[in-house]
TrEMBL record, chains A, B:
Its EC number is 1.1.1.3. L-homoserine binds at E216. This is Homoserine dehydrogenase. SUPFAM superfamilies: ACT-like, Glyceraldehyde-3-phosphate dehydrogenase-like, C-terminal domain, NAD(P)-binding Rossmann-fold domains. NADPH binds at K131. The active site is at K232. GO terms for molecular function: homoserine dehydrogenase activity; NADP binding. It comes from Sorangium cellulosum (Polyangium cellulosum). It comes from the Bacteria. Pathway: Amino-acid biosynthesis; L-methionine biosynthesis via de novo pathway; L-homoserine from L-aspartate: step 3/3; Amino-acid biosynthesis; L-threonine biosynthesis; L-threonine from L-aspartate: step 3/5.
C-alpha cells in the first residue's frame, strides 16, 4: 500500500520494546480471548483445536483459548468449546493482562469498536472479521494499533476465505495497484447467476436465495442494495490505494433494477451482468463504485458463479491477479481468522508485534464524482412502438457527444402489462463507446422528456476486466 | 503444509540465536547480493530502486544492493544497475560476510545449487525463482535453511506474479489442501487458447507463440511436452501435501497430440481443453499428473486464456480458492522476488530469520500409479467408415467395465490424407463415466487390435474443477 504525499495518520512509530517484550515472554503460550461465538467463532474454536499441534509448531509456542465472551451462556455451542471458558463480561477478555490476543467475531459497530480499542490500548494483538467496523473506522484503528505497536489483522473481513488482504499487503508490496474489480457479495452473485442461467425474475431468484440461507429474511437490502459490497470496497481501497474513504463517497447501487430482459440482451451482445465493486487509482484521485456491470463472457470474472467471490487486481508491474473462493460461510471465514491468529501470535511470540502495519500510509484522497467517470454504457429504453423513436434516442445521445457502438430494437415486450393494454412497448437497447457519465446523463435527461418513453431508462456500465 | 506421520527432514530446530542476531545488527541496512542479472534480475533491481523508500519503511531498515554477479561484464544492463557493483565472481556474493541476503536469478541447476547451499551455510537468507532447482532439491535446500535458521523464499518459482506460495504457506495454514488444479505453463495455455479460438493447428499456433516470444526457439519441448509444468507441480506438492517427489513420479504429457478436431468435439460436448497440472491428497497416497484435460466451459479455469496462469486449490474447510495472473515475464516474477526479499529482509532485521519454514514437514509420499486413478475420459477413434464399428468400440469398453455417457460418430474427416486416398475415415468420439484408467487402457488395447482403427486413439482425461 502506497500513497503519494504526506500521511496524516502516523502508522510508522519506531519499534523499541520488541526484543524486551520477547525476552519477557520466554516461551509462554499465547493466550487468546474470543469476543463472540457464533458460526465464525465456533469455526475458529474448531480449527484452533483440530490444528493445535501444527499451529504451535508454526507459532513457536502453544495457542491457548483462555476466555470466550458470549451474550447467552445457555445457548448451544460447538463441541470444541470448553464451557468453563464462557463469560458474558467482555472485560474478562479486553482487560485481562494475561490475554495476548483478542479475536473479535461478534460483528456490528457497538460494542465491538470500543472493545477493540481497549484491547489495543492494553497492548493486545487483535484479529477481527468485522467489515462494517473496518469500513467505518479502519484507518483510525490501524493508526491506534501502530501507535501501540500491536497487530490488527482482518483477512476475514473481505471475501471470507479468500486471501485478499495478505495478497494486497504482501504480494503487492513492491507494486502499485491501479485497479480493483471485485465480486464481493455472494448474495448478489447468486441471484444474478440464477437469473442468467434459469431466466428467473429478481423476485424469484431472491426468494430462492432466502430459502437457501444466502440472503437475509425478511430484509435483504444490506446485500442486494450494494451496501455490504461498498463496505468491503472501502476496506480494499484502504489497502490498495492507501485511501481513507467514507461510505457516502462510494457510488452504490444494487441489483433490484435488473430485469430478465437485461440478461437476455447482455447475453446477445456477448456480456454477463455481474454486481461489481470497482476501484481505480488515477493518481490525483481515486474512483470507487459499486453497481451492476456488463462484462465480456470471456472474462475470468464472468465464470465466477453462485455464492463465490473474486477480487481481480491490476498491478502496474505484475499485471492482472485474481483471487477467488468462498466469500462467506463459517468455515472459510474461520480459516482466514485462524491464519491471522497464527500471524499475530507468531509476531507476539518473537517480540516483533506491530510490524505488519509498518510503512502503511492511509489518508483521505479525492474521489472522482460519478459524472466525471468514463465508461461504456448499456442503455435500455422501453418505448412506444412507432417510427422515428430509435432516431430520436440516437439523436439525443449524438447531441450530447456520446457515440453509439451498437443499437437494436426489439419487441413488443410482455413485461409491462399496464402499458401493454395501451399499445405494445418495444425495447431500444444500445451500447455506447467510451463516454463521460455526465454527458450520458444529459442525453438521458433529454430522452426523459419524450412522451414515447414508457419506463425509466435502464443504465448499466460496461467494464472489460 | 501438513503431513501425517514422521518427518525424515527436520525443519524444526529451536530458534536460539535470533534475539542475539538482532541485537548485533542494530539498525544496519540489509546488504543484498544478486546472482544473475537477466530480465528477472533487471526487474528486481528496478523495483528495489523505485520502491526503496517504501521498502525501507516496511523492512525497518534500508535494503542495499551490494554486489551483482554476471557472466559478461560488458553486456547491456538496466539503468537501475550501478555498474560498479558488477562482478563475475560469485564468491564475492556468497562468501562475503557483509552480505545478508542472496537473490538467485541465474536459473539452472549448476552452479545455482552449490551457490545457494554455500549462502545458506554462511547464514544468509536466500530468495530464488529457480523452479528447476526447487523441483530437484527443494526439500533438501529447505531442510538446510531450517537447520541454519535462515529463510529460503521462492514465490517467483511458480506462477510468476501469482502469490501462490504464500497463499499455500500462510492463508491455508489452518486448512488441509485436498486438490490442486493448475494452469502453470503460459506457452501451452497460449497455444491451446489460439487453437480453440482461431481453429489453428498445433504447429501454426506454436509458430505464432514462438514469433511472440512465448515459446522457445528452436526447441519448445520443455514447455509443450509438459516438463516445466511438472517442475512447478512438484514445488506445489511440496507445500500443499508436504510431499518430496521426483520428476519420474509425475505422469507428464504435453499438448502435441491435440488436433483441431479435438477442440471442436470438446466444444460440442461443453468442454474446453486445458493443459493442467493436477495434484490430489488421498490421505494414504497422492496423485500427481500433468496432461491435456477437458474441463467444463463454465469452469473459472476455462476462461484463463492466453499466457495467463491460475492455480485452483481445494481446501477441506475453505473450499475452492483460485489465484490467477501473469505466470511469467520479467516484471511479474520480479514483483514476487522483491516481495520475498522484503519478507526475508524483515525477518533478518528483526532477528527472527528462519521462522517461515517452521512447522513444515516434507517427506516422500506414495504416488498413486496412473493405472489406479479414476477419471472420466474423452476418447476419439479415427476409424474406417463401415457398419458395426461404433458397436465394436462400445463393446470393448463395456467388456472392460467402462460405461459410456455419450458417443457420436462424425465424418468423413479430412485430416489423414494418406488414409483418405484409401477410404474416408470417420471419428467415433465418446465420453465415459468415471472409470479406472487401467480398465480404460485394457479396453483400448482390445480396440487397437481391430483393423478398422486408422490412427492411435486420442485419450484426454476430463476434470470438473
Amino acid at each position: 500500500m502506497k500513497t503519494e504525499g504526506g500521511s496524516p495518520l502516523n502508522l510508522n512509530p519506531e519499534p523499541h520494546a520488541a526484543s524486551d517484550r520477547r525476552r519477557l515472554r520466554g516461551g509462554a503460550p499465547i493466550q487468546i480471548g474470543l469476543l463472540g461465538c457464533g458460526t465464525v467463532g465456533g469455526g475458529v474454536l474448531r480449527l484452533l483445536a483440530e490444528n493445535s499441534g501444527y499451529l504451535a509448531e508454526r507459532a513457536g509456542v502453544p495457542l491457548v483459548v483462555k476466555r470466550v465472551v458470549v451474550r447467552d451462556l445457555e445457548k448451544e455451542r460447538v463441541s470444541a468449546l470448553d464451557r468453563g471458558l464462557l463469560s458474558t463480561n467482555p472485560a474478562e477478555v479486553v482487560d485481562d493482562p494475561s490475554i495476548d490476543l483478542v479475536v473479535e467475531v461478534m460483528g456490528g459497530e457497538t460494542p465491538a469498536r470500543e472493545l477493540i480499542e481497549r484491547a489495543i490500548d492494553r497492548g493486545k494483538g487483535v484479529v477481527t472479521a468485522n467489515k462494517l467496523l473496518l469500513a467505518a473506522h479502519g484507518p483510525a484503528l490501524l493508526a491506534r494499533a501502530a501507535a501501540r505497536q500491536v497487530d490488527l489483522a482482518f483477512e476475514g473481513a473481505v471475501g471470507g476465505g479468500i486471501p485478499i488482504i495478505r495478497t494486497l499487503r504482501d504480494a503487492f508490496a513492491s507494486d502499485w495497484v491501479e485497479r480493483v474489480t471485485a465480486i464481493v457479495n455472494g448474495t448478489c452473485n447468486y441471484i444474478l447467476t440464477r437469473m442468467r442461467d434459469t431466466g428467473a425474475s429478481f423476485d424469484a431468484a431472491l426468494r430462492e436465495a432466502q430459502d437457501l440461507g444466502y440472503a437475509e429474511k425478511p430484509d435483504p437490502s444490506l446485500d442486494v442494495d450494494g451496501h455490504d459490497a461498498a463496505h468491503k470496497l472501502i476496506v480494499l481501497a484502504m489497502l490498495a490505494f492507501g485511501a481513507q474513504v467514507d461510505a457516502a463517497q462510494v457510488h452504490t447501487s444494487g441489483i433490484r433494477t435488473i430485469e430478465e430482459a437485461d440478461h437476455l440482451y447482455a447475453d446477445r451482445f456477448g456480456y454477463t451482468i455481474k454486481h461489481l465493486a470497482i476501484g481505480r487509482d488515477l493518481g490525483d484521485a481515486i474512483e470507487l463504485r459499486v453497481h451492476p456491470t456488463l462484462i465480456p463472457k470471456q472474462s475470468v470474472l464472468a465464470n465466477v458463479s453462485g455464492v463465490l467471490n473474486a477480487v481481480l487486481l491490476e498491478g502496474r508491474a505484475v499485471g492482472p491477479s485474481l483471487v477467488y473462493g468462498r466469500g462467506a460461510g463459517d468455515l472459510p471465514t474461520a480459516v482466514s481468522v485462524v491464519s491471522d491468529v497464527l500471524d499475530v501470535a507468531r509476531s507476539i511470540a518473537s517480540g516483533v508485534a506491530g510490524m505488519q502495519g509498518r510503512g502503511m500510509s492511509i489518508k483521505p484522497r479525492r474521489v472522482r464524482p460519478l459524472s466525471e467517470i468514463v465508461s461504456r454504457y448499456y442503455l435500455r429504453f422501453a418505448v412506444e412502438d412507432r417510427p422515428g423513436v430509435m432516431g430520436r434516442i440516437a439523436g439525443a445521445l449524438g447531441d450530447a457527444g456520446v457515440s453509439i457502438e451498437q443499437i437494436v430494437q426489439q419487441g413488443p415486450t410482455k413485461r409491462s402489462s399496464g402499458a401493454a393494454a395501451r399499445e405494445p412497448a418495444v425495447d431500444v437497447v444500445l451500447i455506447t463507446h467510451d463516454a463521460q457519465e455526465g454527458l450520458v446523463r444529459s442525453a438521458l435527461d433529454a430522452v426523459a422528456r419524450e412522451e414515447f418513453l414508457r419506463e425509466p431508462v435502464h443504465l448499466f456500465r460496461i467494464e472489460e476486466p
